[in-house]
Design goal:
The chain is an alpha/beta fold. It has 13 helices and ten strands.
């Protein structure tokens, strides 16, 4: 989640690659049988895939046959661009995340798509927070019992404290960038190649703290192996309800960077298609099957109207673009 399931991949694109979609790695052959094609812009086997298949199955009962189609490449940008170029007929949809949809548009040298202009928002699907965590040993060594203590230590030792994330361009990195910007501290970012190495580094005290997704660290926090100081979203995480938000714990009003998944169509999707698709997928999210799957993945169901989801996407696209520009973050 925050790219939980996949290593970073690089792909150099030429004009031919943008038009010859069947040649792209991981793409499922398409059939013209009147079905809806739900594009997952990552390879099979990860968190998004684990949600996409039951979501498609339940929504099919309310709409029409839905095929899950994998279009992998460039951390989700290739599949996302594929939907941006599709006809707005309601037959090509995208499961997008803040990573593939918004952050991917910031980092892509090819500028394959605009996250707002090139898509029609249909519904938000799910959310998850990142959490500021450190090991009990690091907390004792640094004399940190709260976010305020951590900020004070960072100010006493500019540039000395280190924090881990699952990699460049992750939600965790951008939460860290916003945290340092809002608190005017200097700390050193250490990106790791995925979830397990980043969490292991925090557990071992290889880094002083970390910004990790609640889905991967909640059980470790509950076991007492990690100490959670704050959530990076406005609301507390349902997985760790006793952990305050950064707005609560550090007075960082409006601090809100978390992971989300949502459903998009191409730009120009007619209103009647949008309403029908929203109704079908929101209904699917309300079923016990999807509720149980979301709980297993430690995601919080977050169905919405198209207008609410569009507002979220526009806001995130603008503020993350501004954040990267202000901090000169390398994503």
């Amino acid at each position: 989640m925050d790219s939980l399931q996949m290593p970073r991949r690089s792909l150099v694109l030429g004009a031919a690659a943008l038009t010859a979609w069947p040649a792209l790695a991981g793409q499922t052959p398409r059939t013209d049988d009147g079905s809806i094609h739900l594009v997952v812009p990552f390879p099979p086997g990860g968190v998004i895939d684990a949600l996409a298949r039951p979501l498609a199955e339940q929504a099919s009962k309310r709409l029409q046959k839905i095929d899950v189609e994998y279009v992998d490449g460039q951390r989700g940008s290739i599949g996302t661009a594929r939907v941006a170029q599709a006809a707005p007929d309601g037959r090509t949809l995208l499961i997008g995340s803040i990573v593939s949809h918004v952050i991917g548009s910031l980092e892509s040298a090819a500028h394959l798509y605009d996250p707002v202009r090139d898509f029609t928002p249909i519904t938000l699907i799910a959310r998850a927070s990142n959490v500021l965590v450190l090991s009990p040993a690091s907390a004792q060594r640094l004399e940190v019992r709260s976010v305020a203590d951590l900020i004070a230590q960072a100010r006493r030792k500019p540039g000395k404290l280190t924090y881990a994330t699952i990699g460049l361009g992750s939600v965790g990195q951008l939460a860290g960038e916003l945290f340092t910007l809002r608190t005017s501290i200097e700390v050193t970012h250490r990106p790791y190649a995925g979830v397990n190495p980043a969490q292991a580094a925090v557990l071992a005290g290889e880094v002083d703290f970390g910004f990790l997704n609640v889905a991967t660290c909640a059980d470790v926090v509950r076991a007492g192996q990690l100490r959670a100081l704050a959530a990076t979203t406005l609301r507390r995480s349902a997985e760790l309800p006793d952990v305050p938000s950064l707005a609560e714990s550090a007075g960082l009003a409006g601090f809100d960077i978390g992971f989300w998944l949502g459903l998009f169509g191409p730009a120009g999707l007619p209103r009647e298609h949008v309403g029908r698709l929203n109704s079908g997928f929101v209904g699917a999210l309300a079923t016990p099957t999807l509720r149980n799957q979301l709980a297993a993945l430690k995601l919080e169901a977050a169905p919405s109207t198209p207008e609410q989801f569009g507002t979220l996407v526009r806001a995130d696209a603008q503020r993350l673009r501004d954040l990267v520009r202000q901090t000169h973050a390398r994503i």
